[in-house]
């Protein structure tokens, strides 16, 4: 092991660049998966004829597929039907699709956790179904969803490492490039990558715990 040779400023800067790409991809995927996941979760909760069943089927199919398969599909299969994406965009689309399905289930479960008595009371007081959903159900459900959503976003951040298979220049990709220079760099560089992942994910974990504690 060569810690001195591995931890040069050039290598550390290269690793930080990879971490920046990781965070960028994760942040974009988090935003889009949250929006899409909330929309799909609400559709499932409303139990609209046909639409809810189709949405549920799509969500369940995606949730039960390996993320790696979805990444391969977006980067290698979509060009076959005329949809060519850059490496970064393919990673973002794959992560968004996969995480949106996970968020949809969190949203559906959160909405279902609201006491039915509150819904019946709201409806009997004259509120429409949409007004009940907007003013009674969603505000309470969103507070309950925050901790599991943060945990899911932590998983998303870690899952960005799978994009190494399509050569996205994220943290693990850059670590592999440095490791290829000298076999003695492998342990030091992997330890550095582990520390970087830990710092970011531990910070998010603390946030999730604090938000969860506030719900008690």
TrEMBL record:
Sorted UniProt keywords: Cell membrane, Membrane, Transmembrane, Transmembrane helix, Transport
Primary location class: membrane
Membrane-protein topology: Multi-pass membrane protein
Positions of the ABC transmembrane type-1 domain: 19-208
Listed transmembrane segments: 12-42, 54-78, 90-107, 185-208
Subcellular localization: Cell membrane
The keyword Transmembrane belongs to this UniProt entry's keyword annotation: yes
Superkingdom, taxonomy of origin: Bacteria
Entry-linked PANTHER family: INNER MEMBRANE AMINO-ACID ABC TRANSPORTER PERMEASE PROTEIN YHDY (PTHR30614:SF41), MEMBRANE COMPONENT OF AMINO ACID ABC TRANSPORTER (PTHR30614)
Family affiliation: Belongs to the binding-protein-dependent transport system permease family.
The protein's name: Amino acid ABC transporter permease
Taxonomic source organism: Paenibacillus baimaensis
